[in-house]
Structure formats: structure tokens, C-alpha cells
Amino acid sequence: MRTMKRLTMRRQPIVTYAGVAAILFSSACQSGEIIELSVTELDNEYKLRVVAVLDAPADYVYRVITDYRHAYRINPAITSVDILPADRYGLVRVRNRSEHRVGLFSFDVEWVGDIEETEDRGINITTIPEAGSFESGTAHWEIRSQGERTWVLHESRLTPNLYIVPVIGDYIMKKHMKAETMATFNRIECHAQIMLETDMEVVPERLKAVLIQKPKCI
Question: Measuring CA to CA, which residue among 115, 75, 125 is closest to residue 92?
Fold first, then answer.
């Protein structure tokens, strides 16, 4: 079973996670809406549930989320992505390596999983335990059109095989996961809007105002 590659103390100014979450939530809700966001933990299994309405059409939101090779665009914690051979047809096997900073600590995470896309814009993900930093894990996406906007559901559960979690503390870990999730959804919406603007010869007036507010996906 694998363990963390490194655990280091950082000597740098600390921003409270409540402050980070407030900034990110404000950014995420300038156009889209986070309707529900929860992180729970039981026996070292972390469950995440997000419901959001993003201000971009569903086809574009789906394209951004399923662009696995460029996942770092929506999650800058990711440092490398590899597409691996899958065991059967219809699966995409992905390996992500990422670096995370939580309070004074920084640590590396490796995740490997199989991704299956359904005909109705659903995405099912299964973690491969022996290949990364997690004992188990699953995730599910639902993406539904609401005209020019998109309703998105994301549910996931992960059990890390890392000693870092009790060191950091359950409360801080949950804050970190929420902040990363809100930042990711903000970037999904932003990149989908940029794709839309690139493809359209005439952008609707309502979306023009949104795009002006978001010249970069940060």
C-alpha cells in the first residue's frame, strides 16, 4: 500500500480557510450558482456532493469536464496527467498527480481511475486502489441542459490511504476540499464560456456581459 511521497512544513503567510472559501464562493457565484456543497467524513471516507447551475450550455460544460488530458485547466493543483491503457472498451483510464497545500503542510497525491461516459452526459468514475494514494473511491457526474445554462451534480467518495489526514485535522481538510471544489466549478464555467465564444459568430447579449467579467479563467 502506498503512502504519501512527502510531508513538509511551509514557512509562509497563512490565509485562513474561511477567508479563502469566502473569496472563491464569491467568484463562483458572479454568474453561476453553487446550490449545494457538502463534505462529510466517516471512518476516513470523505464524501463530496455539489449541485450547481453554470452559466454556459450543457454541451460546452460537458466538453470541459471530459477533457481529461487538460484537467489541470480546471484544477491547477494537478501537476501531470497521463492517459493509460484501459482494461476494456468504453473506459478511459487516467492518472493524475497533484500537489496540495493545507495550512502549513504540503503533500503530493497520485490518483488512477477508470472513467465511463454515458449517452445522457453522465460520467461514472472508479478509483483503482493499488495504483495510487487511495484505498477506494467512486464519483458520478450528471450534466443537464437548462437552456443556455447547465445544471450539474457531482458526487464522490474517497478513502485516502494517507496519514496526512489525521495530522491536518478533519475540519481543515473539509475546508480545503470545499475551497478546491468551488474553484474548480468556477473554472469549468469559465472555460465553457470561452469555448462558446470561440464557436459562436454572434454571442447573445446576456452572455456578453458575463464574458466581459471573466477575461481569464483564474
Answer: 115
Task: Tell me the per-residue pLDDT of 81-114, one tens digit each, with 9 for 90 and over.
Answer: 999 999 889 999 999 999 988 777 788 889 999 9
Q: Contact, 94 vs 112, CB < 8 A?
A: yes
Q: What is the pLDDT of residues 108-142, one digit of tens each?
A: 889 999 999 999 999 999 999 888 889 999 999 99
Would you tell me how many other CB atoms lie within 10 Å of the CB of residue 123?
A: 18
- DSSP E strands in the chain: the ranges are 7-9, 33-42, 45-54, 78-84, 91-102, 105-117, 123-127, 134-146, 149-160
d(CA 96, CA 173): 20
Give pLDDT, residue 23: 27
pTM for the model stands at 0.78
Task: Report all structural domains of the chain as residue ranges with CATH numbers, in order of start.
Answer: 7-213 (3.30.530.20)
Residues in contact with 182: Cβ distance below 8 Å, sequence separation at least 6, in sequence order = 21, 24, 25, 27, 28, 34, 37
C-beta neighbour count of 23 within 10 angstroms: 14
Alpha-carbon gap, residue 109 to 4, rounded angstroms: 7
Dihedral sign from CA coordinates of 68, 98, 133, 179:
negative
Residue 189: all three cell numbers together: 464555467
Q: Are 186 and 74 in contact (CB under 8 A)?
A: no
